[in-house]
Amino acid sequence: MHSRFLSIWFRHLTTDRWAIKRPELKGEPFVLAAPERGRMMVKASSPEATSEGIYTGMVVADARAILPALRVFTDDPGLKDRLLKALAEWCLRYTPVAATDAPDGLILDITGCPHLWGGEQPYLENITATLKSKGYHVRAAIADTIGTAWAIARYGKSGLIVEPGEQREALLPLPPTALRLEPGILQRLEKLGFHHIGQFIDIPYQTLRRRFGEALSHRLDQALGTGHEPLQPIQPLPPYREELPCLEPIRTATGIRIALERLLKSLCKRLSKEGMGMRTGIFRGHRVDGKTEEISIGTSRASHSGTHLFRLFELKIPSIEPGLGIELFTLEAPIVEPVPEVQEAIWHTPGNNRTAIAELLDRVAGKTGMQCIHRYLPQEHHWPERSVKAVSSLDIQPDTEWQSGLPRPLHLLPEPEPIEVMVPLPDYPPLHFRHKGKVIRIARADGPERIEQEWWLQTGPPRDYYAVEDDNGARYWLFRLGLYGDGKPQWFLHGFFA
């Protein structure tokens, strides 16, 4: 059987992820930037920004000169590696052998897999269509070798399948950079007039080695299949799952509790040994009539305390309908995280406020749902919507202190909402404003507080904020974007005070 490889290229990996997390960025030109030698440099460019001539490695100031409306966000240098690892794990549903191909690709060994999807073409289409539906811009190709699949995915026709043994013909029209060569070798090839692989592929290897060293002939061997190229697949973590078969079908709540306690004891023992804790747990009961009963929990911090986890599950045990009886119980922890070393020692220690808070939040979440609980930490930004960030764990500590010198609303809208105002003089607060068709008359006001744009992220007019109160005592946070005399400024509602 021929070995077959699939190369997937994520053309805009990190900016696609940003657009997935923030749907308002879809279709908008933006870049991710980071400081480098005293200048802000573009580290990733969205498809819309790339189409305007903005590319990775460009100075942000030059990019703004090309596109003044360009939005700039801070780059996370570890995001690419995390995304590729997560995407490789996702691809394990298509093949047992998946590897990351830094900085922006994946390599899958698909030998013996495509027939499960009806052949290589529907297999390839299924993978690429699913990734595109998630919001990623991808190109992919299948070939006998990693090198040829990589080359076709980036420089050939997207979605191309190179038939077994035909990698040489597929490589001929491609540029030398498709062989993954170093810049110095590419420059020498260009000086000699070699613009396509077909122009030098038949030159004797001894001649190529004297002129270009071992790297060129080595890459040719790998692409053609005459040289070995190792693949380092990711190692999927073993699932955290325990099973408990029953000699007799269980029909009582007491029996279900005993089964849950036994499963938790086994699973928490393994979690504790590996230094991990449960963040989500799923308890299932498989009934004799073929139906499955299921309850799940979530925790605000990783835990391997059987006592605490049992209390969370116990709240939902009454919802289990055993019917004619349950013959198999399973307990699974699909999401786990490392547990701080001190947790085991202090879990039952009186006065441990953080643990008590975590337990309280978990119980509240068990009754109302995790979506009802949110935690926010401060960030070092003046722009209000950037000054806080949502976190999912109590163990994450703030990097800076909360600003307490100026009033801030308890409820900050995720995006400022436009309003119509009646203003007597340029620097005065409004007399009344209209929001979503409702006219609100202002009795008292305080301000303005001017907040400038953060020039290293984006440029534009300042905001002048006013804290205002209506006749009924309701208080609002309004701001004017821009100055009178410099065009027509706009007014927005940004939050509500308690």
From TrEMBL:
It comes from Negadavirga shengliensis. It holds the Pfam family IMS. Gene3D superfamilies: 3.30.70.270, 3.40.1170.60. Keywords: DNA damage. Residues 19-151 form the UmuC domain. This is Y-family DNA polymerase. Belongs to the DNA polymerase type-Y family.
